[in-house]
Design goal:
This protein has 450 residues and is of the alpha+beta class. It contains 12 helices and 24 strands. A 6-stranded antiparallel β-sheet has the order 13-12-23-20-15-16. It holds the Pfam family NAD_kinase_C. This is NAD(+) kinase.
């Protein structure tokens, strides 16, 4: 006859352990119930839950920790010394409604960086008005690039001389602006916003962009009443669009003694990373990996890896879809692929892309970051791309949705077409045409002249 102990235990060793635990004075043993022969958790996940050495936990298939957030562009909620996202309880499953992302200051902003489109005389008047108002009326510390003050045309504005001595200057690539700027004002086109992004390789202060350039897809503000609009921002009455950036790391081929030729180069881009065949007449042959898994080999003119912000730039011209900047995603778009099976794809934000030359590639590949820092990658070199934890907080003129669709309609003429006629108009045309046909029929019925 089976006992209850034998029903609980699946082997003689477990039964012996259980009996020893019952007979002992102090219960120092614990019995284990029979395990299910099949687990509902996949075998790969069971191994991934096992404790790993500290060195393995900090590294993944690339050379830097991956993005921590899977449901948003970044877990970083602070921008610059005193700007941050206002906390809002309207969140579902850790996915925040973009409309709830609004700017707030936990101390009054005092420093502002003004970025002006260089070599453009039409912006000088607006630049002088803005700087004069910020310094004299708002008593703010204004930073400008040293190259801006080198413009000889500024000497024609008499009231600029009283402001020039009070401006703080810096040189891009030399001076560090970390924790010195509260918010940024851009005067020009989309290039000014891209330049502002390149100045901050970590946390970026909120950016307010005025449309004074040619295209202006990323510049929603008009300069007519700049005082009222800047005051709204200073008072914290503004919505934010978190534009995710791509963190790009270039690893060069190692030498025979195992030492790197050059240190890894890290660049943050706002629009896209473009890999192309350069001046070579041959097709590019590029291997694409996603989290260490080989996805495909790109044969064609090249490859575009873009953010949602960059989806309306080079990517859409190559056949990709337009994606709202608040969508956490990375777009991979081939440039004139040799195989029609490789179409533009969208992958989750936070994955790691590795791009390298195929062993059978005939030529090197060239890479550019937001149209700059163009360089060649040889056999053995690798490019790693992932979503950065430091987005660009772009201040909205209206809100996240209205600004984006307005820019689509204004710059790309999206949804602009000849409208279809209504039913009543068609019926009137059909009625008039039928009357004409009846008149023609009556004319044909009349006898012909003999």
């Amino acid at each position: 006859m089976l006992s209850m102990d034998s029903l609980w235990c699946s082997s003689e060793s477990e039964l012996t352990t259980l009996r020893l635990a019952k007979n002992a004075e102090r219960p120092e043993y614990r019995f284990s119930r029979r395990r299910s022969p099949k687990s509902l958790i996949p075998h790969a996940l069971l191994h991934s839950l096992e404790p790993q050495p500290r060195s393995q936990r900090r590294r993944r298939s690339g050379t830097w920790p991956r993005t921590r957030s899977l449901n948003a562009p970044s877990p970083i909620q602070q921008f610059g010394p005193c700007g941050r996202i206002m906390k809002n309880s309207a969140m579902v499953m850790q996915i925040q409604d973009p409309a709830s992302q609004r700017l707030t200051w936990y101390k009054p902003p005092l420093t502002v960086l003004v970025i002006k489109k260089v070599h453009d005389a039409s912006i000088l008047s607006s630049f002088v008005q803005l700087v004069h108002w910020l310094v004299h009326d708002k008593s703010m510390v204004v930073f400008v690039e040293a190259a801006v003050l080198d413009d000889t045309l500024l000497a024609e504005y008499g009231d600029f001389a009283s402001v020039r001595e009070r401006l703080m200057t810096f040189r891009a690539g030399t001076d560090d602006l970390t924790d010195k700027i509260d918010f940024i004002i851009c005067l020009g086109g989309d290039g000014t916003l891209l330049h502002a992004s390149s100045l901050f390789q970590q946390s970026v202060p909120p950016v307010m962009a005025f449309h004074l350039g040619s295209l202006g897809f990323l510049t929603p503000f008009e300069f007519n009443n700049f005082q009222d609009q800047v005051m709204n921002v200073l008072e914290g009455h503004a919505a934010l669009t978190l534009r995710s950036r791509l963190q790009c790391v270039v690893l060069r081929k190692t030498t025979s003694d195992g030492k790197d030729k050059k240190k890894p180069t890290t660049i943050l881009v706002l629009n896209e990373v473009v890999v192309d065949r350069g001046p070579s007449p041959y097709l590019s042959n590029i291997d694409l990996f996603l989290d260490g898994k080989h996805i495909t080999s790109v044969q064609g003119d090249g490859l575009i890896v873009s953010t949602p912000t960059g989806s309306t730039a080079y990517a859409v011209a190559a056949g990709a879809s337009m994606i709202h900047p608040s969508v956490p995603a990375v777009m991979v778009t081939p440039i004139c692929p040799h195989s029609l099976s490789f179409r533009p794809i969208v992958v989750p934000a936070g994955v790691e892309l590795k791009i390298a030359l195929s062993p059978e590639a005939r030529n090197a590949m060239w890479v550019s970051f937001d149209g700059r820092n163009r360089q060649a990658l040889q056999h053995g070199d690798s490019l790693y791309v992932t979503t950065s934890v430091y987005p660009v907080p772009s201040i909205c003129a209206q809100d996240q949705i209205s600004d984006w669709f307005d820019s689509l309609a204004e710059c790309l003429h999206w949804n602009v077409r000849k409208k279809q006629k209504q039913i009543d108009e068609l019926s009137d045309m059909t009625h008039s045409s039928s009357d004409t046909l009846e008149e023609l029929d009556h004319q044909d019925d009349r006898p012909a002249d003999t």
